[in-house]
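User: Predict the full complex structure for these chains.
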Amino acid sequence: MGLRRYVLFKLLWYTLALFVALGLNFVLPRLIPGNPVDALVARFLQGGLQGQAAGRVYQAFLEEFGLDRPMGQQFVAYLGNVLRGNLGVSFSYYPARVQDLIGQALPWTVALQLPAILVGWLLGNVLGAVAAYRGGRFDGRLFVAALALSSIPYYAMAILLLYALAVAVPLFPSAGGYSFGLTPSWSTAFVLDLLHHYALPFLSLVLVAIGGQAVGMRSMAIYELGADYVRYSRAMGVTQPRVLRYVFRNAMLPQVTGLALALGTLVGGALITELVFSYPGIGYLLFNAISLNDYPLIQGVTLCIAVAVLLANFLVDIAYGFIDPRIRAVQLGER
Amino acid sequence: MLRSRRLAVSLALVCGVVAFGMLGPVVSGRDPYAIVDMPFAGPSRYAWLGTDNFGRDELTLLMHGTRTSLQIGAMAGVISVLLGAVVGTAAGFYGGLTDEMLMGLTNVLITIPSFVILILLSVALKSRSVQAMGLIIGITSWPWTARAVRAQATSLKAREHVWVARLSGASGAGIIVRDIVPYMLSYLAMAFTLQLASAVLTEAALAMLGLGPSNSVSLGVMLQWALLWEAVRQGVWWAFLPPTVALAVVAFSLQLLNASLDEVYNPRLRGGVDAS
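Assistant: Here is the predicted structure of the two-chain assembly.
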């Protein structure tokens, strides 16, 4: 079965999904009753503009945001702009461009989430595998602990840690990405300050990730440990370490998919952590955009999240197609 | 032994939370929005859990908030399980073009993150009632259930009793209702517990972003107030700890319930290597 056909098939599929996402992104905010430009102009008029001048301002904004044209034309213009990387102009930070605002926030989010996902995945899998192998009381306790950790919503964990380690016992700063009054640079003082602010949000995300991964790995490993090939290998006298190597290699496969999908939630997976810690990432930006009714900015952020997820899913699918020919065959309808 | 204890603990927790949210507001009879003391006043005999940023009673708010969150969660859970079950059984049982089309739709919706659709939908709604929140969370969270149900329906339709029903001339809809759905009920119950838990957490996340139900208090809305008024940084633990703990308990008890039900149905999950 052709690998090329599989990749093309997937590409087509994800293009369709992207198109649907773009369509939703375009249509849903336009369902809002009233015209967002009204709100914007109202704010400008408080500055004292009146009469004809107000009318001109209104017209200028309508044209700038393209809201005076029919929906179809707006959508074509929107698609063209998005393809050129132009996400429009923010209402609330006018005249800042949406893509620049996102560009400033994105590195903070990625730097927070990427290490948290990787470290959480690694530690969680080791713990889950050990629990499954040892069983008994150790497993029982670890399982409940991991389940408790993973079922605490990540934002609740953030709030609890913020209170415990920044307010009750003030070990860490309670807000921001770095201290007021410091200018970003690669000096030792600044980097230390950065890490100091980084520790709590990072810890809150890692703890939850460890719990979730451990629960998943444990059940996969238990399932594999009870599989027929394990009994058979044992009966044939294959040494224990060797059997375990097979077991954990097989149990890892779904976990690898899990890692890739978790990487897809990199941008949108922990928006509220940033809110709790006033961390200057995408979540904080989205919150400001929502509270200021800044539709272009909301749209830009949601598009960014959707594209990240679609891209990760696409890469997982392609990687799987390379690894496992059976998946290619099933997906193309040839069993 | 451990297994039944786990089931009992999780059931007791779930019942406790439901009783707190459903009976609490009736028993206390207090208006959640009434101002009873100074803002952020500590626990006292007027307000056992202290007051919030406006001086309203935290305990009363918590009971009403739990109720709202459970209502939204239950509604979203029912809607998503129903939609998922209908789409999944139809796709699995009829197969062919129906299957292709329904699963195509499901897969597109799975690949587009539902939180994005939720944010956009919530922004588009000017006023979000409790029902509207339940509805939009429900209609964005069914695709995973649909996929799992489809797998079950495909395997069930190949069982002998279904062939017997077919040979005796039962209609497709009749077979689905009498011979397929009953065998999936335990699975659907488990799916419901998870959907309920995740809907409660989703509501809280939306509310904290400023997209919660308008004119009602939910656990997420309480947390939003706590964050907006800096309750955490001021160390006013009674304003943020109760809703945080309530959310964690709802999520944990339902997950534990799901896991112990899973162990009842899949005995293999009970022990480690030594059990085999």
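Chain B has a mean pLDDT of 86.
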